[in-house]
């Protein structure tokens, strides 16, 4: 017989992302509309271990659609990686009568979800990380907002770089992936973009790009660096040594993780939250909700964690063409 989900838990885990609140709201409202109760688990997997929870009703998630951060708080839990921690989490689910968990986060969150599912607690994952580096989905909640925030910051930097005829090196987030750096780099017309997926040839990718841009008449230069490539300060120093100009270095940091979610993030988060609950309501679990070609898909969690998403290097070429074309006769 199909499992009946009468009460589910929802949590956010790992690095926060704008739109997580919209996803929590969608989970709660969809569940309630189907007669399913919702327990909010605070502080991610750590909160499931320590039974840190709050009952949620329709109004508990009022006015959060437009706010960044996560009303459920988030954490990274070392204890949850251990068997003992996972057993405590299972005990909390039993104690609270939780039939399944919606886990909102990135790959780390989903590894935790897989471990819990193997202990018999059904889970559904909703991808949310500004890095957009979850293999099974072409979009993760928070990416669009983070791109727009970084673009706004870099546009401001450009104003002063232009006035002073300077070079700027801007570090954006992306520990293992260059999605944010490359999309932002294209959108701000960067002189060069450094991403972990592209083997860096400093002479070709940075020095010659600045020199070509200079020859084309430019007097200010914008270098966007993904965090995973290395420190923007080191890149700045190397530019100074090689080209003789002294760049100004800016690390955008956690600014990129905050702020009101964009339309895309609110809409995607709402759809993903809705489909997460629908999976439970229709008796499916242990899947990640993803987007592919604009539509929503469900991928078995084990398979999802094996999937790799590659940065489209065509985008890298497009970014380069915008600058190389500048110097062409
Ligand atoms: O959310 C992912 C991410 O943005 C990475 O790009 C970054 O390295 C990391 O979070 C930093 O997170 P924290 O400082 O919260 O540990």
Ordered list of secondary-structure elements with their pairings:
Elements: E1 7-12, H1 20-33, E2 37-41, H2 44-49, E3 53-56, H3 83-96, E4 100-105, H4 107-118, E5 123-127, H5 143-164, E6 167-172, H6 179-188, E7 192-194, H7 202-215, E8 221-226, H8 232-243, E9 248-251, H9 263-281, E10 287-292, E11 295-300, H10 301-306, H11 313-327
Parallel strand pairs: 1-2, 1-4, 4-5, 5-10, 6-8, 6-9, 7-8
Antiparallel strand pairs: 2-3, 10-11
Helix pairs in contact: 1-9, 5-6, 6-11, 7-11
Bound molecules: 6-O-phosphono-beta-D-fructofuranose (F6P).
6-O-phosphono-beta-D-fructofuranose binds at residues 15, 129-131, 173-175, 227.
Describe the structure.
By secondary structure, the protein is an alpha/beta fold. The protein has two domains: 168 residues, Rossmann fold, CATH 3.40.50.450; 123 residues, Phosphofructokinase domain (Rossmann fold, 3-Layer(aba) Sandwich), CATH 3.40.50. Helix content is 44%, strand content 17%. Helix 1 runs parallel beside helix 9 and helix 5 packs across helix 6. The N and C termini lie far apart (72 Å). 6-O-phosphono-beta-D-fructofuranose binds next to loops. 6-O-phosphono-beta-D-fructofuranose (F6P) binds next to loops.
């Amino acid at each position: 017989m199909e499992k009946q989900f009468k009460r589910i838990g929802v949590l956010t885990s790992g690095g926060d992302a704008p739109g997580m609140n919209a996803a929590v709201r969608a989970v709660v409202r969809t569940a309630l509309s189907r007669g399913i109760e919702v327990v909010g688990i605070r502080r991610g997997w750590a909160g499931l271990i320590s039974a840190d929870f709050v009952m949620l009703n329709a109004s508990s998630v009022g006015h959060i659609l437009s706010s960044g951060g996560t009303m459920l708080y988030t954490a990274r839990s070392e204890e949850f990686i251990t068997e003992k921690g996972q057993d405590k989490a299972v005990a909390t689910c039993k104690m609270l009568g939780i039939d399944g968990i919606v886990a909102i986060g990135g790959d780390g969150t989903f590894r935790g979800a897989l471990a819990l599912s193997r202990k018999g607690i059904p889970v559904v994952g909703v991808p949310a990380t500004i890095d957009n580096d979850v293999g099974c989905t072409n979009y993760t909640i928070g990416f669009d907002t983070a791109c727009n925030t970084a673009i706004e910051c870099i546009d401001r930097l450009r104003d002063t770089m232009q006035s002073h005829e300077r070079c700027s090196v801007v570090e954006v987030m992306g520990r293992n992936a260059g999605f944010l750096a490359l999309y932002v780099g294209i959108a701000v017309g960067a002189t060069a973009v450094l991403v972990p997926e592209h083997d860096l040839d400093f002479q070709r990718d940075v020095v010659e790009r600045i020199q070509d841009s200079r020859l084309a008449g430019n007097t200010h230069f914008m270098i966007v660096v993904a965090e995973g490539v290395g420190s923007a300060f080191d890149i700045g120093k190397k530019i100074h040594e090689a080209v003789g100009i002294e760049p100004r270095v800016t690390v955008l940091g956690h600014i990129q993780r905050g702020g009101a979610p964009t339309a895309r993030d609110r809409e995607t988060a709402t759809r993903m939250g809705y489909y997460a609950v629908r999976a439970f309501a229709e008796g499916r679990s242990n899947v990640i909700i993803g987007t592919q070609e604009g539509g929503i898909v469900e991928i078995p969690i084990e398979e999802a964690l094996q999937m790799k998403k590659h940065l489209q290097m065509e985008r890298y070429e497009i970014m380069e063409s915008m600058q190389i074309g500048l110097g062409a006769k």
